[in-house]
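Budget justification aside, the reviewers requested a transparent look at the raw inputs and outputs of the sequence design task funded under Objective 1. We therefore reproduce one unedited record. The lines immediately below are the structure tokens for a 330-residue chain.
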């Protein structure tokens, strides 16, 4: 073979991989490895200061936000001490609620409107729209713990109970997976209970148009009727702009519908403005059927979406709302 053909036979003393590297360097127009290293050193010398210049401010901002989070926790230290003196799990719940509330305030400028509609005592069923990741619901639970002194029981999908290491968290925050009898019992015991009728399907396959994907589900309505409790609809503005899913991929939708495998990727974490709105309670009416109550609840939740969410949702607009209040009602 000829040298100009890039054959490794012209490098008899080199290993095959080293030979390939030499050919690559020749192809790049570099005579030897020293030229390549010198070029790389030049690039590092030029770009490293630029990288440092852009990274250091973010590190400072991170420390500032961690400082704010510390102050948020410190502000509630007396409440935390009191909680731990009563029960170790009460203290743990309140500590985690404080951290989540701090995250909500810092990252999303979180607001909640209508929390007074949640009773100070006694049961109620809270029905909410399920975002791609229900972080808004976590923030709501934290607010209820901190401001109402109550733990909101939650209905979670079965796959949550199969995630390794999740059991203590689910138990401490009273997450159940049903059935209806267990939900009714929680309400009859005087607890708050929250459920998203759309569940994982709504989380993964709804989009920035905020379509409710409840199908024919009426079990939650039957639970409210059996427990004779009011239903409180709940919706968080921009929840789909915080996190989005790739539910438009047909294969992933087919896998979920066929095998109930939630493999749809979720992306985001954008620091958009979150505002949670609680609608007027739908009071218990013994003359109404489960189908009628489910439809009434769906209409109430759709009304919250229509009133407070600009459709289709827009990430950039939701980011701007962190600095400029522009609710759809305004």
């Amino acid at each position: 073979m000829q040298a100009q053909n890039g054959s490794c036979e012209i490098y008899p003393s080199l290993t095959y991989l080293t030979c390939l590297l030499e050919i690559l360097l020749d192809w790049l127009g570099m005579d030897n490895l020293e030229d390549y290293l010198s070029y790389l050193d030049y690039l590092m010398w030029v770009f490293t200061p630029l990288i440092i210049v852009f990274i250091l401010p973010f590190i400072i901002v991170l420390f500032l936000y961690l400082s704010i989070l510390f102050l948020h926790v410190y502000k509630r230290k007396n409440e935390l001490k009191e909680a731990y003196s009563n029960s170790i799990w009460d203290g743990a719940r309140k500590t985690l609620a404080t951290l989540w509330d701090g995250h909500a305030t810092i990252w999303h400028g979180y607001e909640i409107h209508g929390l007074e509609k949640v009773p100070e005592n006694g049961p109620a069923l809270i029905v909410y729209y399920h975002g791609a990741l229900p972080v808004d619901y976590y923030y709501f639970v934290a607010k209820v713990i901190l401001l109402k002194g109550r733990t909101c029981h939650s209905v979670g999908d079965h796959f949550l109970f199969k995630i390794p290491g999740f059991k203590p968290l689910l138990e401490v925050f009273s997450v159940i997976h049903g059935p209806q009898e267990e939900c009714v019992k929680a309400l009859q015991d005087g607890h708050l209970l929250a459920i998203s009728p759309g569940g994982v399907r709504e989380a993964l396959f709804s989009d920035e148009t905020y379509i409710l994907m409840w199908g024919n589900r009426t079990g939650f309505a039957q639970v409210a009727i059996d427990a004779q409790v009011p239903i409180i609809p709940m919706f968080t503005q921009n929840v789909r702009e915080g996190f989005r899913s790739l539910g438009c991929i047909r294969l992933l939708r087919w896998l979920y519908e066929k095998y109930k495998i939630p493999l749809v990727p979720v992306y985001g974490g954008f620091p958009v403005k979150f505002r949670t709105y609680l609608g007027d309670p739908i009071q218990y009416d013994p003359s109404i059927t489960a189908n009628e109550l489910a439809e009434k609840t769906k209409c109430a939740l759709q009304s919250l979406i229509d009133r407070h969410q600009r459709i289709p949702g827009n990430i950039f607009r939701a980011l701007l709302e962190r600095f400029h209040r522009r609710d759809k009602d305004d």
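Confidence is low (pLDDT under 50) at residues 1-6. The chain has 13 helices and nine strands. Computational costs for records of this kind are itemized in the attached budget.
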